[in-house]
Specification:
The protein is mainly alpha-helical and about 130 residues long. The protein contains five helices and no strands. The chain has a domain of about 80 residues.
């Protein structure tokens, strides 16, 4: 039960942070049609997960509950793109380049079309 609480509280912190930062960036870049807020959040999430993972690997000071709170909860609520980025980086770092490329390719080939499919299904059901 503690693990669910840690993930939930972390997710709350991450989601609220994403909402705030995305809104701030949207306000600053209001004249642009480009989704700068999402880009900033995803990039910052990748930077943070990389820094935390690097620190955890070299100093071994992040306990499993802390990792649940930070990685799964907070960064998961902030952006799941950070998990995608870290997992792809980890595969490449371990010289598993085919798996890293497959991870990127499958996300592009499955996840983006899934957005289109989900949208089409919702539109057809709502008509």
């Amino acid at each position: 039960m503690r693990d669910f609480f840690l993930v939930g509280v972390g997710g709350f912190v991450g989601s609220v942070s994403r909402y705030y930062l995305g809104g701030l960036v949207l306000h600053i870049t209001a004249a642009s049609r480009f989704p700068w807020g999402t880009l900033v959040v995803n990039t910052l999430g990748c930077l943070v997960i990389g820094a935390l993972a690097g620190a955890a690997e070299h100093r071994h000071y992040l306990t499993p509950p802390t990792r649940l709170f930070l990685f799964t909860g907070m960064l998961g609520g902030f952006t799941t793109f950070s998990a995608f980025g870290y997992e792809t980086y980890f595969l490449g770092r371990e010289h598993s380049w085919p798996a890293a490329a497959l991870n990127v390719g499958l996300h592009l080939l499955l996840a983006l079309p899934a957005v289109w499919l989900g949208h089409r299904l919702a539109v057809s059901i709502m008509q």
